[in-house]
Amino acid sequence: MSDDRASHGSFTARLLGSVGELPAGEWDALTDGTNPFVSHAFLTAMEQSRSVGARSGWTPVPIVIDGPDGRLAAALPAYLKDHSQGEYVFDHTWADAWHRAGGAYYPKLQIAVPFTPATGPRLLTPHPELAPALLRAAETLCRENGLSSAHATFIEPGQVSVFEDAGWLMREDIQFHWENRGYASFDDFLEALSSRKRKDLRKERAKAQEGVEIRSFTGAEIEEAHWDAFWEFYQDTGARKWGRPYLTREAFSLLGETMADKVLLVMAFIEGEAVAGALNFIGGEALYGRYWGARIDKPFLHFELCYYQAIDAAIALGLARVEAGAQGGHKLARGYEPVRTVSAHYIVHDGLRAAIADYLEQERAGIALDQMSLGAHSPFRKGED
């Protein structure tokens, strides 16, 4: 990979080998601090734990722009990928089609937080005028190093227009988020649902909690024994979903060491033994549900730990929403509503770009219909209850 160094006025863009090469204070100063996943602590925990790197197929290549004073002025969290795993925006069909046409889809550039389908900033800078320069640097990296494409996933709404203005192909999908409409308690939230759904949720919570003690841990309350138990749960879920867990055991310890105040670990116990757990991250505006696992099969325990406890926590913390991760139409019945997520794609080859553009046009119409259909099945009250 060549040393991609390009000047943009009085600013210089360059390519690094890790986020860890940069001072934490300078990196974190590029954001408003509300999204935990683009923090220096989270991204370096992925690097130091070897969750990203050679074994994973996620090679860190952050693109940064230095200001005239030599300090960091802008950055892209970026990775070279030799596969399409752990992204949650699926482009396997694009890769297969390009390979059949004789092209090489991999390596590609992924502008994202590894293994994390949560909306957030991808253009990290307090200087909006530098955002287009970051994208030009990513495009230059692709063209000059034989990369097929660059992909920015789960872009926060306020940054979408920058990618559109740069001519990147835009793609939409649907996630399910819970919105806090000023609720004072879980019961207050339930009152906004239809009577049938309200009864269903109360029954589910009662069955899930029967014979189970549920406790939440954050900050210094989280001990290595908790991480040991959660690692067991996580491995089981990871093996069933992905074939191999994305995060190493060390990643959880590092997250506990460096950002425990941003972690909410919800665990279920039976007779003092941990039997299930859900890992959440606390942002400035949202609670982000990430991983879950269990060593028992208890009805509705998954919903209780991942969805209802998250709602309880968001209300208590005064957060605006809960983002419960990718996919899962079953979340709709539990008060999580369909919202649009957006990704952006820069395709180097004109022919491949044209084919993907046609594909996205057709896909976009289907996504719009899906969102309309899902909205019609909302559990919230419509007129008279």
UniProtKB/TrEMBL annotation:
<dbReference type="InterPro" id="IPR007434">
    <property type="entry name" value="FemAB-like"/>
</dbReference>
<dbReference type="Pfam" id="PF04339">
    <property type="entry name" value="FemAB_like"/>
</dbReference>
<dbReference type="InterPro" id="IPR016181">
    <property type="entry name" value="Acyl_CoA_acyltransferase"/>
</dbReference>
<protein>
    <submittedName>
        <fullName>Uncharacterized protein</fullName>
    </submittedName>
</protein>
